[in-house]
Amino acid sequence: MTPVPGTTSPRILASACTKTPGANWGTLSLEALIDVRRAYRSAPEEDHMKFVHVATRTKDLDSAIKFYEQLGLHEARRSELTKGKATLVFMEPEAGNFAIELVYNWGKDDAYAGGERFGHFAFETEDMDAVLPVLELFGGHVTRQPFLLEGDGPRIAFVDDPDGNSVELIQR
Fold first, then answer.
1. Same domain for 115 and 96
2. Same domain for 12 and 91?
3. Of 47, 65, 74, 89, which is most buried, counting CB atoms within 10 Å of its CB?
């Protein structure tokens, strides 16, 4: 999201929220809300934020890979998360314009319930610290503060949307 020149930055907007607990705690003043809408009224520029993958958990990684190969996807990359005890496989079409992340949690060989199976939507962003306060202003709830994946990987964070769907932000 690119602010319109002359408007307030997301960090300043986040500080405009009422910080005192009570009836109006966490709300924006009318002026700050107008400034947020003016600053972010247009869609994000393509080079600023990009949808990159959707994640789903699987109990049988090999079967899941074979299934998605039948849809024209191929294994583009694989990560073994020793600290997180999981294997991540990214299945992509030849164009490479999106991925399905298959997550196998080591030792979890039983079927996942429907609500546990879906993982998250993922977006790459250039400036996570600027995006997080704006998402919170628009109903998002940060569920995992920014951290480095496996201690040295990309910087990631998780935010629930207003309906509780998980969104991962990735800053490389």
1. yes
2. no
3. 89
